[in-house]
Input
Amino acid sequence: MAEYDYDLFVIGGGSGGVRSARLAASMGKRVAIAEEYRLGGTCVIRGCVPKKLFVYASQYHEHFEDAAGFGWTVGETRFDWQKLMAAKDQEIARLEGLYRKGLENAGAEIIESRAVLTGANSIRILATGREVTAERILIAVGGAPNPHASLPGHELCISSNDAFHLTALPNEILIAGGGYIAVEFANIFHGLGVKTTLIYRGVEILSKFDGDLRRGVHKAMVDKGIRIITGDVIEKVEKTEKDLVATTMHNGEIVAGQVMLALGRDPHTKGLGLEAAGVATNGKGAIIVDAYSRTNVPGIFALGDVTDRVQLTPVAIHEAMCFIETEYRNNPTSPDHDLIATAVFSQPEIGTVGYSEEEAAKAFDELEVYRAEFRPMKATLSGRAEKVIMKLIVNAADRKVIGAHILGHDAGEMAQLLGITLKAGCTKDDFDRTMAVHPTAAEELVTMYTPSYRISNGARV
Ligand code: NDP
Output
């Protein structure tokens, strides 16, 4: 039998790669993990974590305003971008340190370099030129922002990566896209005082979500003062003396200090040596894997965003744990991608799990939709006009709740718990016999006793 330098070589120190390396090393496997940038990957370094910190920062001006209704007088307030960046950087460095420590404690070797495949069992470490061999190779290199290379002037635009390193906030920003990143950052920049425009090609933002929530978040954003242009795209971006000018197809020119592209993320597979190893990819460059994260090359595995299954951190971590179960614990386990709860940290927030009403109407004959729209208690004194929307989609045939959607404060937190109920196959009757927690917004989820409307063979009745 061939003798390899490592039992497992992981390329990519993000959520999926680090979890795999740490678990395998803690089982006594000889593990190396190569990372070309910083340990923690997109989520920790330039994604979920710093984004959520920015979301918190961007909400304070509303908190200050709301306080008046509760008897507070808030003095002069001022926001300091440099201070936020420094605090954010410090926290990210702390988390990166924890990732490093976890790997070191487990006994994994950390290689701070780009690594590329040179064969089915071999990898070249570019920093040193050294070639090493491994019995198993795991590719967990994630994704990178779609640069929209066909857009003239795309090189003048920033991506979410750059948004975390801006030296100063622009006065105005134009954000292209209507997905998670575009919507979250539009709210962040607006909340921090930047005049914000979002431009989206489709009819309504957040194309993958329930229609009610899409319309609700759109309205709430516009009411706050964010300009949303739908049915339009940027055709070119040019630089003037002190600004950028984006020419749109239907809405003329938009002048902004920054233009941000948030048009999806591509698998980060270019130049990875996949051809040398014979690893197959799809048309988007994503590595093709089977239900056990196995590529077409025996011994080479891939998981997380690079496989373009579901681009979410918890999914990559789950796939990593399944990989370890399957390959090192003799317990074949394939990741379960069904009913993934998710949140969009827009303002107000979206929390959702399961079928949207539109998807459910196509997939089921008879549905009951329970829907509530109300002003949250805090808004009664603060005077804020924001509404909460809650919605349960029920399959009439077996009474199972197949979709749960929330727009409003802490919707992400609620979605996590709703995810358990849908995963457990709870019926509407289970919801009905659950005592309410009072006074909360979430109690509405267990007190919507009569359907707001029904959907029969795709049509609302
Ligand atoms: P999304 O897939 O969410 O959205 C991409 C957006 O870009 C869509 O509105 C899409 O339009 C639009 N688009 C794509 N190509 C073009 C084009 N050529 N011209 C104009 N518009 C275009 O991607 P994001 O970049 O927002 O985020 C990447 C992924 O990261 C997300 O899918 C998500 O999985 C993950 N993420 C998760 C977060 C969370 O959990 N809170 C936060 C941030 C990111 P259309 O809808 O019409 O296709």
About this structure: The domain at 154-263 is CATH 3.50.50.60 (FAD/NAD(P)-binding domain). The chain has three domains: 6-145+266-328, 154-263, 342-460. The longest strand covers residues 131-139.
